[in-house]
Amino acid sequence: MEIKVHDNQVDKALKTLKMKMAKDGLLKDFKRHTYYEKPSVKKKRKQAEARKKKAKAMRKR
User: Fold this and answer.
1) Could you give the CA distance from residue 28 to residue 22 in angstroms, rounded to a whole number?
2) Which residues of the chain have pLDDT under 70?
């Protein structure tokens, strides 16, 4: 991932970087790996994500 800074506008470049990372799901991944997640919690989270994904697919039809 590459973000170019034009005319010393670092704030704008940082905002763009954060938006790209959020869109790719990297921020969520970083936050999830900052602490240990019990296997039961991990299983529930994955099931919830699958439900959301399935519901979104059903809405698009």
Assistant:
1) 7
2) none
Closest CA to 25 of 53, 44, 60: 53
Spell out where the chain has E strands: none
H or E element at residue 55: helix 39-60
Residue 38 confidence (pLDDT): 93
- Asked if residues 18 and 9 have their Cβ atoms less than 8 Å apart, the reply is no
How far, in Å, are 2, 18, 20, 21, 24 from residue 8 at the CA level?
A: 16, 17, 20, 21, 25
What are the sequence ranges of the domains in the chain? 10-60
